[in-house]
Amino acid sequence: MIQAPDLARDADPWTLAGSALAPEAGPRARIELALHTALTAPSPGNAQPWRWFVGGEVIELYADPARAGGEADPEGQAAALACGAALAGLRVTLRALGLDEQTALLPGGHPDLLARVAVGGRASPLPEEQWLYQAAPKRRTYRGVMAQGPLSRALARRLKHMVDGTGAEYHVVEDMARRQAIAAAVEAAIAGEPSARTAARAAAGEPGVSFEGPDGGEARGQAIADGSPAFVLVTTEGDEPAEWLRAGQALMRVLLRARVDHAWGSFLHLPLADAAGRKQLASLVGATGRAQALVRLGGGADTPPTPRRPLSEVLLAQRPS
Ligand SMILES: Cc1cc2nc3c(=O)[nH]c(=O)nc-3n(C[C@H](O)[C@H](O)[C@H](O)COP(=O)(O)O)c2cc1C
User: Fold this and answer.
1) Fold classification of 153-298 (topology level)
2) Could you tell me which InterPro entries the record lists for this protein (predicted)?
3) 13 vs 225: CA distance, rounded Å
4) Tens digits of per-residue pLDDT, 93-145?
5) Which burial class, exposed, middle or buried, applies to 285 when counting CB atoms under 10 A from its CB (0-12, 13-18, 19+)?
């Protein structure tokens, strides 16, 4: 159990996320713990393209244009997805710590303002909200061949339920024929990647586009399907920034819920780097909209956490002008 003074803003977010807070802690301490937890969200190349501002009991999430993905993410879709994931981490924590919240996406007033979260009164967290919160410090991107085996029926149902109310849709693909179709789309995206995008991704520090295959090299072609017991796609009807934020929230909830049940995820984002790819991937699962996230899901193993910037580096002293 941590006390409010432990919530140093320069603390490593991984050491605080998921902790229980002393019962007497006030809303400010709860908000700060929720911010620390939000910082453990995944982001392309671990760019952490977010900034935060807190005014009383209102929390604002801003994009950080200095950490946008450039050529690797020309429309800003991946950065928005990551910010949506961080927003979900924040909201899950607020609720797990007993605070109600109301969130407005893209409320306007500043071009970088992505969301405003107004913390309300006390809420009684559901057990599942507490599990999601406790899973936050254990979530990692697992870049290895995943243990085979179908998702249990119960887990498949729980994951689907995670996107309820987010405005996004969830699709799981486990049969080999459709896994091969997705793997072929990933392979085509890798093979056809413009060199400027490859360079931008490498410069951003992304370890690779797929994952480490059985021969130690990056998985390509059939190995992508073989090493991925399940693919999960998060889709939205449209393809606008608000939908990217919704999809990011849905994705984070799915990844956290998977981790509660000892399943791991990793990203195959390259085919979704442009609007045409997002449309094509959605059609592969029979969805009318756009695929915003494609992750592999299966059995993995723990790895050390990837470092995060502390809250002191991402918390704004005042609203951006
Ligand atoms: C939108 C998005 C796209 C990503 N794309 C890739 C990718 O193409 N290849 C990869 O290995 N990891 C990818 N990642 C995972 C990040 O590299 C990872 O989240 C980051 O390094 C932090 O590590 P962690 O997730 O283990 O905390 C992506 C993450 C996000 C949110």
Assistant:
1) NADH Oxidase (3.40.109)
2) Nitroreductase-like (IPR000415)
3) 34
4) 999 999 999 999 999 999 999 999 999 989 899 999 999 999 999 999 999 99
5) buried
Test site for ligand 1: of 267, 296, 302, most ligand atoms within 8 A of the Cβ: 267
275-299 per-position pLDDT tens digit: 999 999 999 999 999 999 999 999 9
Exposure of 201 by Cβ count < 10 A (0-12 exposed, 13-18 middle, 19+ buried)?
Answer: buried
User: Is there a shared CATH topology between the 4-139+310-314 domain and the 153-298 domain?
Assistant: yes
* Cβ–ligand 1 contact at 81 (below 6 Å): yes
Residue bearing the CA closest to ligand 1, atom 1 = 78
Give me the CATH topology for the region 4-139+310-314.
NADH Oxidase (3.40.109)
How far does the centroid of ligand 1 lie from the alpha carbon of residue 85, in Å? 12
Q: Which structure tokens are listed for 10?
A: 């320069």
Q: Which atom of ligand 1 is nearest to the CA of 251?
A: 31
Residue 79's CB: how many other CB atoms inside 10 A?
27
- CB contact at 8 A, 143 and 213: no
* The residue to which tokens 């072929």 are assigned: 184
Verify whether ligand 1 is closer than 6 Å to residue 198 (CB atom).
no
Query: What single letter denotes the amino acid at residue 48?
Result: Q
Q: Is 73 in the pocket of ligand 1 (CB under 6 A)?
A: no
Cα(219)–Cα(88) distance, integer angstroms? 30
| Residue ranges covered by each domain of the chain | 4-139+310-314, 153-298
113 with 106: CB under 8 angstroms? Answer: yes
Please name the residue whose Cα sits nearest to atom 28 of ligand 1. Answer: 44
Q: Which atom of ligand 1 is nearest to the CA of 143?
A: 11
